[in-house]
């Protein structure tokens, strides 16, 4: 895998949206939040464009992604937000050019579609991180989240280091064991949507990370079952489960008519007989850790240690 050069203060960040349109009132604070970190900013056209719920046409969003990788004056690329639309531009990206111009690429949620293809088609390590127009501009963006983000994008070397949850927020062991593999994954909805396409996620021998937001327990069950039937869960060497924000019963007035997430995980995941950790502080939540997707990690589910080893 290609590990991009770590960012340093004074570097230039290309800011874009491959997905949803950015509310106009959030653009200036998002730019200011990046500049406060010591970076310069080049703002892509997609940060100001709107095509319904999308940040401009598919052609414009693909152009912004390609151009930010192509531009020699851009040192790293931050997705300003998620939303929907990244999957629509996958056929329009220049993967050979992107692989030839490796850079820090950061974002999460709908950006999962890009993480998968950049990891698999470009052999590029990418970063599952909070984003400028969502988390960066929140007043409750905490020190843990900032430190984890900066450690990912400004210290991209291959020295071993631990993923640790915030203090007083322990992980949970669903199944003990130890596994080593490439870290892949992200948003469950986007991962499931990749199945049956040329951009389908490969989980063979890898550590699969999953999280989601605003999905009912029944839909979580359905998507995990689809991954199971597609062989993606059996192929994985281990699983990491992050935040499941607002993922409750379909009818909150009758929770007894649903299955809890813990029950769903127990019924679908524990029969896999491989190490599984849950309650990882990562996803649509604060505080949240940043993850280097594509790096080799070791998961010890008994000691709840997650170590980047390569």
Q: What percent of residues adopt helix (DSSP H or I)?
A: 25-40%
Order of helices and strands: EHEHEHEHEHHEEEHEHHEHEEEE
Q: What do we call the CATH topology of the largest domain?
A: Glucose Oxidase, domain 1
Radius of gyration of CA atoms, rounded to a whole number: 18 Å
CATH class category of the largest domain: Alpha Beta
Beta-strand residue fraction = 15-25%
Organism: Lysinibacillus sphaericus
Family: Belongs to the peptidase S66 family.
Active site: 109 (nucleophile), 211 (charge relay system), 284 (charge relay system)
Keywords: Carboxypeptidase, Hydrolase, Protease, Serine protease
Q: How is the secondary structure organized here?
A:
Elements: E1 12-16, H1 24-35, E2 40-43, H2 58-70, E3 76-79, H3 95-100, E4 104-107, H4 112-121, E5 126-128, H5 132-136, H6 143-154, E6 161-163, E7 172-175, E8 178-187, H7 188-193, E9 207-213, H8 217-229, H9 232-235, E10 238-245, H10 261-268, E11 276-278, E12 291-293, E13 296-300, E14 305-308
Key features of this structure:
alpha/beta, 22% strand, 310 residues, serine protease, 29% helix, 10 helices, 8-stranded mixed β-sheet, Carboxypeptidase_A_C_sf, 14 strands, globular, Glucose Oxidase, domain 1, Rossmann fold, 6-stranded mixed β-sheet
What do these coordinates show?
Residues 180-298 form the LD-carboxypeptidase C-terminal domain. The active site is at 109 (nucleophile), 211 (charge relay system), 284 (charge relay system). The structure is a single chain. This protein is α/β, with parallel strands linked by helices. It has helices spanning 24-35, 58-70, 95-100, 112-121, 132-136, 143-154, 188-193, 217-229, 232-235, 261-268; strands at residues 12-16, 40-43, 76-79, 104-107, 126-128, 161-163, 172-175, 178-187, 207-213, 238-245, 276-278, 291-293, 296-300, 305-308. It has 2 domains: 12-155, Murein tetrapeptidase LD-carboxypeptidase, N-terminal domain (Rossmann fold, 3-Layer(aba) Sandwich), CATH 3.40.50.10740; 161-308, LD-carboxypeptidase A C-terminal domain-like (Glucose Oxidase, domain 1), CATH 3.50.30. It is built from 10 helices and 14 strands. The strands form 2 sheets. An 8-stranded mixed sheet has the order 6-14-13-8-9-10-11-7. Strands 2-1-3-4-5-12 form a 6-stranded mixed sheet, with helices on both faces. α8 (217-229) packs parallel to α10. It starts with 11 loop residues before the first strand and ends with a strand. The model has no long low-confidence stretch (mean pLDDT 96).
């Amino acid at each position: 895998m290609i590990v991009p050069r770590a960012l340093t203060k004074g570097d230039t960040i290309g800011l874009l949206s491959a997905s949803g349109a950015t509310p106009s009132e959030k653009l200036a604070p998002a730019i200011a939040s990046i500049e406060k970190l010591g970076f310069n900013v080049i703002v892509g056209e997609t940060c100001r464009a709107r095509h319904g719920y999308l940040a401009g046409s598919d052609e414009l969003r693909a152009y912004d992604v390609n151009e930010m990788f192509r531009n020699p004056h851009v040192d790293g690329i931050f997705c300003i937000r998620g939303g929907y639309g990244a999957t629509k531009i996958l056929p329009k990206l220049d993967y050979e050019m992107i692989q030839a111009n490796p850079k820090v690429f950061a974002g999460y949620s709908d950006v999962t579609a890009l993480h998968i293809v950049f990891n698999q088609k470009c052999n590029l390590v990418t970063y599952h991180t909070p984003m400028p127009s969502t988390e960066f501009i929140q007043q409750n963006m905490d020190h843990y989240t900032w430190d984890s983000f900066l450690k990912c994008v400004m210290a991209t070397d291959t020295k071993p280091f631990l993923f640790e949850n915030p203090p007083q927020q322990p992980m949970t062991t669903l199944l003990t064991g130890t596994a080593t593999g490439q870290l892949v994954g992200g948003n469950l909805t986007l991962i499931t949507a990749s199945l049956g396409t040329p951009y389908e996620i490969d989980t063979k021998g890898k550590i699969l990370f999953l999280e989601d937001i605003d999905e009912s327990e029944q839909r979580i069950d359905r998507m995990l079952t689809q991954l199971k039937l597609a062989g993606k869960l059996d192929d994985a060497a281990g699983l990491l489960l992050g935040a499941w924000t607002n993922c409750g019963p379909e009818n909150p007035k009758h929770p007894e008519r649903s299955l809890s997430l813990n029950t769903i995980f127990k019924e679908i995941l524990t029969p896999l007989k491989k190490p599984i950790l849950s309650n990882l502080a990562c996803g649509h939540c604060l505080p949240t850790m940043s993850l280097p997707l594509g790096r080799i990690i070791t998961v010890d589910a008994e000691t709840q240690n997650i170590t980047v080893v390569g």
